[in-house]
Design a protein that fits this description.
The protein is mainly beta. It contains one helix and five strands, in the order E-E-E-E-E-H.
């Protein structure tokens, strides 16, 4: 998984009735765009995240197409 600051992280929920989590990647702390990522989630919470297989990185350029 590779990301850049400004990309969005989408973490899919595994439970019925539990919302997915979305946030903006503020910093990439791993080499060459790899995790961990400092993420500000839409609820304002910031966390250092090592995304799992249930996560997707969406770059702004992908949304425009």
């Amino acid at each position: 998984m590779h990301a850049a600051a400004g990309d969005r992280l989408h973490v899919h929920s595994h439970a019925v009735g539990v919302n997915d989590r979305n946030g903006e990647i503020l910093e990439v702390r791993g080499p060459e765009g790899q995790p961990p990522y400092l993420v500000r989630f839409d609820d304002g919470h910031e966390a250092l995240v090592y995304p799992g297989p249930d996560s997707v990185v969406e770059s702004p350029s992908e949304k425009q197409s």
